[in-house]
Amino acid sequence: MIQQYINSGILEAYVTGAASDQEVKELLYMKATYPEVNIALQELEKDMELIAQQMAVAPPEGTWDKISGSINELIIRENNDPEQFTGRDESNYKNFTQPGTGPQYIEVESENNYMKVHKAWKWVFAAVFVLGKIFLGCAIYFYLENRQAQLQLKELKTELRLLKK
Amino acid sequence: MKQQLTSTEASLPVLKQSKHSLYISYGALLLGYIKEVVKELALAEQYLTEVFNELKAQDIEEILKPGANAFLRLQQMARKKLSSFINTVENCNDQAEISAKKGITGNKFISLMNQEQQLVFCGIHYHGKNTAKLAEELNKPENTIRALLRESFIIIRNYRNDTAVH
After folding, report:
1. B157 and B123, same structural domain?
2. Statement to judge: residues B81 and B100 lie in one domain
């Protein structure tokens, strides 16, 4: 009976993925129950590998890089996932301090063109700005006044010269 | 939550390592099979990449389970992935395609089979058809289809034994 089952072609259908779900269930039961079925199945698996070896084509260079690249992306995404810090676990902050509990970071001193200034300096800068405006206004005012005075003086000198003549 | 984080971080490099080991062992075999189906190396490579990219830790566990045949599992996944493509290509009923297969790969097994065996083997192996569908298409009982498939494998087995002797 077992030999009849083995010879029926169900095993071949199974290894080629052509068996129905019912047949697969039945076969797995037979495989577990009868060692002959298991041996026959292993032989067929070897046959399938033989077929594949005959047709084997070495993957082009860079194929693995494409596969590993997508895993690397996942690793990076996993490490940068903000979700990991949003949990309500109060001891979450410890992830940053306990080695091995959270993501490990390498400290890198970044190059920055900005400097930090104390907030108090805000009023000093504001005062300097206002005073600067006042001085500028005064300078313009006195310059114009001076120019006006110079013109008047010139006119007076001209009038005096004319009177003398 | 901390435990989850640690395991995820640890699993990705392990996953990468397992995939790499599977790729080294079976990449060429799978690519050969896929190329036979799609008939174009660039497209076959794309499918191979997709098969490996979609492998999850759970799949790898299944593949590497004691008693399981890793190559067959991977081939089943590739076949599933190719199913939409397979539906768009011509059937093995076309004698020209069978001849082409012999020509492309020098597939010795197919050339040793008779026409009926070729139709069944090609339909199941390259076109992912199940026995019921093929029986309907060829207007033959399912038992006959299984018998023809078995005969095809006997031819392959004989070839294997012959080459092992020599």
Report:
1. yes
2. no
Residue to mutate among A7, A8, A42, A57, with most B CBs inside 10 A, is A57
CB contact under 8 A, B31 and A102: no
What tokens were used for B61? 């566990």
Q: Residue A104: is its pLDDT beyond 80?
A: no
Q: What is the pLDDT of residue B9?
A: 47
Give the separation between CA B164 and CA A56, rounded to whole angstroms. 19
pLDDT confidence tier of residue A109, bands split at 50, 70 and 90: low
Domain boundaries, chain A: 2-55, 71-104, 118-165
Q: For chain B, where are the alpha helices, taking DSSP H only?
A: 2-38, 41-53, 57-63, 70-86, 95-105, 108-112, 115-125, 131-138, 142-165
Both B12 and B82 in a single domain?
A: yes
Q: Is the ipTM of this complex over 0.90?
A: no
- Closest partner residue to A52 among B23, B33, B79, by Cβ? B33
Exposed/middle/buried for residue A86 (C-beta within 10 Å: 0-12, 13-18, 19+): exposed
pLDDT value of position A83: 57
Tell me the C-alpha distance between B17 and B23, whole Å: 10
* Surface-to-core class of residue B108, CB atoms within 10 Å of its CB (0-12 exposed, 13-18 middle, 19+ buried): middle
Quick one: average pLDDT of A76-80?
66
